[in-house]
Amino acid sequence: MIAVVILNWNGSAMMRRFLPSVIAGCAGEGEVIVADNGSTDDSLEMLRTEFPEVRILALDQNYGFAEGYNQAFKKLEEESGPNYEYLLLLNSDVECTDGWLRPLREYMDAHPDCAACQPKVRAEWDRSRLEYAGACGGFIDRDGYPFCRGRIFGVAEEDKGQYDTVADIFWATGAALMIRAKDWQEVGGLDGRFFAHNEEIDLCWRLRSRSRRIVCVPQSVVYHVGGGTLPQDNPRKTYLNFRNNLTMLYKNLPEGEMQRVLRRRTVLDWVAALQFMAKLDFANARAIFRARRDYKAWRRDFEADRRANLAAMVVNPIPERRDISLLWQYYARGRKRYQQLPNR
Question: In angstroms, rounded to a whole number, what is the distance separating the alpha carbons of residues 306 and 212?
Answer without folding.
Answer: 18
